[in-house]
Write a structure and sequence with these properties.
This protein is of the alpha+beta class. It contains 17 helices and twelve strands. α10 crosses α16 and α14 packs across α15. The termini are far apart.
Length: 461
């Protein structure tokens, strides 16, 4: 296993990363990137085990509901790249379908996962294409590179062109796991490609955006200073992919199997994060209501009760998805699709209302509170201390810290990232509605409907 120092050294490999239009030579020291790189390094150290054969639990294949629950606990204790390891589980989860097409794909996947364990690498899920005109399929786009595609086939591999968008933590990983973004159709064979590739492979560039804190005083950004997770557009400009790294190559009928498998694991990660987030929003609402002296006001208590209901229902879906886990033919436990998709849809679609509730309880100081540096200033600090003090037990520094946490989390750059990612993670809301509809036991519901009407099932006129 790697130490944090080993990890940081491994990132100095010539990878092409751009931030705000400028090439970054070393992602471990660049502004806006240094902090997340160091957070991942601390994650390496937290799980480091020098014993021969030891590997990070993010690469453990779950075999039961208890294993799935342990995995959720682990990813919150590890660094944020642990969520990306779901790509390995998605590939392993698609083995049944891939084995029927070509057993060599399964052999390559299993070797890749074994290498991830042995070399303690971090990976990125590289899925969403640029897509161009979304009313057209990949093969009919005006620009054929709107979806990543094979542009050349060689005896030892393929050459690909295209770009993948919204790639979480791309500048900080060792391997990019590329998969089709959706079900492909006849004519889209060159777009039906899945593979792994080193992040520093020739022809790969990463155009990175970040919601890292602005300015040097991180007290003003108590949440994003710890959870600034850069995203990147990953550009593939005539990138060679060797045969041994290819997991799918032209079999359009299998594109949906991989996309569906990944969607399930991505939505589980999203649901787990939103369950944690829901409790955090509720806690902030309760604390700031106490700091403001309004916690006993009936309308405020009602709002916080509503938020607690949201948090409870979100976590209940997460728990149901784990408790009702399904076991694949390969012996891997996977979360229950009905509860993952219904829970992810509910949590994402109601999130904006919860933020509105929090702002309603907290008040305008969420966006107008003086900074902590103002509190430190010998000239103006005494006034800030005097007028920002809250109810008994909440000194100015405490109340201001709560305001800055709420703003950073729900009314600043990180807030916009959460709003967008909650909707888009694991596919848009419509995808979760469709899967929920397909997984729901409609026949059982119909039987209850017939019974309520006093009719035998299937009765006509």
């Amino acid at each position: 296993m790697k130490t944090g120092k080993d990890y940081l050294t491994s990132l100095r490999d010539g990878r092409k990363v751009y931030v705000h239009g400028a090439r970054v030579d070393d992602v471990t020291i660049a502004p806006g990137l240094r902090e997340p790189a160091e957070e991942i390094a601390r994650g390496y150290d937290r799980f480091f085990d020098p014993a021969p054969g030891a590997y990070h639990p993010m690469f453990e294949v779950p075999r039961s509901a208890e294993d799935l629950r342990a995995r959720i606990k682990m990813v919150f204790e590890a660094d944020f790249t642990a969520f990306n390891s779901a790509a390995c589980l998605a590939l392993l989860g698609a083995r049944g379908a891939l084995r029927a097409a070509d057993p060599v794909y399964v052999e390559r996947i299993e070797r890749f996962v074994a290498r991830c364990r042995a070399e303690d690498v971090r990976i990125a899920e590289v899925i969403s294409d640029a897509k161009g005109d979304r009313s057209l399929p990949p093969s009919r786009q005006a620009d054929p590179d709107a979806y990543l595609r094979v542009v050349e086939r060689r005896s030892d591999g393929v050459v690909v062109n295209g770009a993948k968008l919204h790639i979480t933590a791309a500048p900080f990983v060792h391997e990019l796991v590329v998969m089709p973004t959706k079900r492909m159709k006849a004519g889209d064979e060159d777009y039906t490609i899945a593979f792994s590739i080193p992040a520093n492979a020739p022809g790969i560039s990463m155009v990175t955006v970040t919601h890292a804190p602005r300015g040097d005083d991180v007290r003003h950004f108590p949440v994003s200073r710890r959870y600034a997770i850069p995203q990147a557009m990953v550009v593939f400009d005539h990138v060679f992919v060797p045969d041994d790294a290819i997991f799918l190559n032209g079999e359009i009928e299998l594109s949906a199997a991989i996309a569906h498998s990944l969607g399930l694991w991505e939505r589980l990660s999203g649901l787990a994060q939103m369950a944690e987030h829901a409790d955090m929003l509720t806690g902030l609402a309760h604390l700031i209501s106490e700091a403001n002296g309004v916690s006993r006001a009936p309308h405020v208590a009602d709002i916080i009760a509503h938020m607690a209901m949201y948090a409870t229902i979100t976590r209940a879906n997460l728990e149901a998805s784990l408790t009702q886990a399904e076991i694949t033919e390969d012996g891997m436990a996977k979360p229950n699709e009905l509860y993952v998709n219904a829970g992810k849809y509910y949590a994402a679609s109601e999130y904006v209302l919860m933020v509105r509730h929090l702002h309603d309880v907290a008040g305008a100081s969420v966006v107008t509170s003086p900074t902590m540096a103002d509190l430190d200033n010998p000239d103006i600090g005494p006034f800030v201390e005097k007028y920002m003090k809250g109810a008994q037990g909440f000194e100015s520094a405490h109340r201001m810290a709560l305001f800055h946490a709420i703003r950073d989390l729900t009314a600043d750059v990180l807030a916009g990232w959460h709003l967008g990612s909650n909707i888009s993670a694991g596919g848009g809301l419509m995808a979760q509605r469709l899967v929920t509809r397909n997984q729901y036991d409609m026949q059982a519901a119909d039987r209850l409907g017939w019974s309520a009407a006093g009719l035998a099932p299937g009765a006509d006129g």
